[in-house]
Amino acid sequence: MGTATSSMAAKFAFFPPNPPSYNITVDEASGKMRFSDVNYQRDNVDVLKLSTKRGNEIVAMYVKNPSASLTVLYSHGNAADIGQMYHIFTELSVHLNVNLMGYDYSGYGQSSGKPSEQDTYADIEAANKCLEEMYGIKQEDTILYGQSVGSGPALELAIRLPHLRAVILHSPILSGLRVMYPVKRTLWFDIYKNIDKIPLVDCPILVIHGTEDEVVNFSHGKQLWELCKEKCEPLWLKGGNHCDLELYPEYLRHLRKFISAIEKLQRPRDAPDLKPKDQTEQASNNVTEQSKEKSRPSIDYREKGRPSFGHREKSRLSTDSRDKARASIDKREKSRKSIDRSFKARNSTDHSERARNSFDRLGDMVRSVGLCNVDCLKQTAAEV
């Protein structure tokens, strides 16, 4: 059954550019790898080859920003590779003031193997491991960015990182099958079951979606946002389609505000690692979980998202402990309001002319690439 599922998933989901947009060469003077087909390469970009636990070797690029405190791990869309995304990644690193790692899935670009759902999970795991071991990036300083199909591996990793700083979902999918058919429940052969995973993510989540998306309906992003535990102000781009959201000035402005707000959230630096979450619900009545709840201010705390906390603890906590829990919730609520005000009221820092110039340059890159991220989800529907 596993083989059948993998085969069906491959037909539904993956469409790597053919031929790849880049080749890899080694600079004789420095010994560093470079993309041979990319113009205006930058010295602050490392090109890497990473081994995955499924035996593939994937290509990644790491954009270093010396003034950054946060790092974005970017999972790109379906019909792109990192050669096409090179200049977009470098621009985002500058304008968002972040380090940024992008990677190609197995079978994409110059990465070995064939794409599959499980391989993409191993791919992002290898990229994150590289951030931790080679660059010393901790999970509490990492933001996962999943674009379209990339929302699948991003959310899979997010539920396994208890101290992750934040998640950004760009035109995300509820699941692979739901892109084509309005199914009401998750079926065994479906892939990227984001609808089931997003309620398990504990960190703040930003959702970006175009209201006129003809590939992944706007309802996907809206429903995922509604299921978030710690949702923040979403970006619904009126008139936006699937492949053009970067062309809207609101896109970069909203991302800047989000990154600035996330930087102000104090994350636990010395908290012990927790075991990966189960697809069901991890027990939340231990001391570590209580500590985590107290230390995480929420951009938009959703009391409804933790209905069982008080019930499970009732038989174990004393009256004093319950009072402390209520005080912690009040404190988080005050923090949320403060962050919300900061997130919404900082228009004065975005000079209109500067923002316009930034978007003209980023927009030109998006137009030149001609990215289309999951058209194959609809194209192959007739073939299955």
Automatic annotation (TrEMBL):
It comes from the Eukaryota. Residues 268-280, 290-356 have a biased composition (Basic and acidic residues). Residues 70-176 form the Serine aminopeptidase S33 domain. PANTHER family: ALPHA/BETA HYDROLASE DOMAIN-CONTAINING PROTEIN, ALPHA_BETA-HYDROLASES SUPERFAMILY PROTEIN. Pfam families: Hydrolase_4. SUPFAM superfamilies: alpha/beta-Hydrolases (SSF53474). Residues 268-356 are annotated as: Disordered. InterPro entries: AB_hydrolase_fold, Hydrolase_4. This is Serine aminopeptidase S33 domain-containing protein.
